[in-house]
Design brief:
Elements: H1 4-13, H2 21-34, E1 43-44, H3 47-54, H4 58-70, E2 74-77, E3 81-84, H5 95-104, H6 113-120, H7 144-156, H8 172-185, E4 190-193, E5 196-199
Antiparallel strand pairs: 1-3, 2-3, 4-5
Helix pairs in contact: 1-2, 2-4, 3-4
InterPro entries: HTH_trans_reg/aminotransferase, PyrdxlP-dep_Trfase, PyrdxlP-dep_Trfase_major, Tscrpt_reg_HTH_GntR, WH-like_DNA-bd_sf, WH_DNA-bd_sf
Keywords: DNA-binding, Pyridoxal phosphate, Transcription, Transcription regulation
Domain HTH gntR-type: 19-87
């Protein structure tokens, strides 16, 4: 699996025209640093890893990193790796590069009048977690150690069906767990039959009115 930097470099390499690979790689990384695609202090992949992702020799990556380091675009930290410099050299993309960027940029898309209206009707809160938000549990109370232990146990011998599309309505184990929970916590007599839920008459209620779930 390629890193995000590897994916970015592959795209930028296609935009470069220089016949020499290490120069195309240098220009791709330099432009990514200058236009902010690679943020200050972001870590570049180790030379061996990036070489494997791009299918080039490690020496090509080392040459590129050394040139970026010499010109102040990146810094090297012993034992930690190579990072984008906090402040890039005072330079900007040349007019030629800007024209190339503009020619490669996708045209600006505009929403239709209906799309703008629908966007204005969005009522979801930008804050999706925290106190006093309806429907959101206290995730701080989530039993992470227990969950990790169970997940590790199940992952050691996964069933083939868990690596494909799930059953209709969820896996049988999940369905049964929901039935057991609702029966105990809400008093709702449910059963699982053929991947669907069936409700029986609750004790003391023969009118057919379901209990709140």
């Amino acid at each position: 699996m390629r890193s995000l930097v590897g994916d970015l470099v592959l795209v930028r390499l296609q935009e470069e025209r220089d016949p020499l690979l290490h120069k195309r790689l240098y220009n791709a990384l330099r432009r990514a640093i200058l236009d902010g695609s690679l943020a200050p202090q972001s870590r570049l992949p180790p030379s061996r890893d990036l070489a494997g992702e791009l299918g080039v020799s490690r020496n090509t990556i080392l040459t590129t990193y050394e040139q970026l380091l010499a010109e102040g675009y990146v810094v090297s930290r012993r034992g930690s790796g190579t990072f984008v410099a906090q402040t890039a050299p005072e330079s900007s993309l040349t007019a030629k590069e800007e024209r190339e960027n503009n020619s490669l940029a996708a045209p600006t898309a505009h929403l239709s009048r209906r799309g703008q209206h629908l966007l204005g009707q969005v009522s979801a809160s930008p804050r999706q977690w925290g106190a006093f938000i309806p429907g959101v549990p206290d995730v701080n109370a989530f039993p992470h150690p227990l969950f990790s232990k169970i997940q590790a146990r199940i992952s050691r011998r996964p069933k083939p069906e868990r690596l494909s599309y799930s059953c209709n309505g969820g896996t049988p184990e999940l369905q049964q767990a929901l039935v057991d929970y609702l029966r105990v916590s809400r008093g709702v007599p449910l059963s699982v039959r053929s991947n669907s839920y069936h409700r029986g008459d609750p004790p003391g209620d023969r009118s057919g009115h379901p209990h709140a779930v």
